[in-house]
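Give me the fold.
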Amino acid sequence: MLDLAGKVASHAGREGLEAVLLATFNALAQLARLLFPLAVMLGAGALALLVFFWLGQTSLTLAFAATERVCVVRGRDLRLFDFAEAVAGQLAARKP
């Protein structure tokens, strides 16, 4: 029995180190397996942001005295541009 306890004590350091290395490498392997799905999700998010950037957003803000009115339209709205130019033209005509 003492002989068996001596063997356990002499190999405890090496087996402990092997267990730590095995656990570390297993954790790194699990992390590496998560990198591909993470890259796919980040790529999908980047693609969605690119689509929203391409579509754009047209916004017109009208500020009068103490009020502010914001008109927001998804995409490029040429009618909103024309409306903004018409309002700017009328305001410029009223200035002395």
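The longest helix spans residues 2-55.
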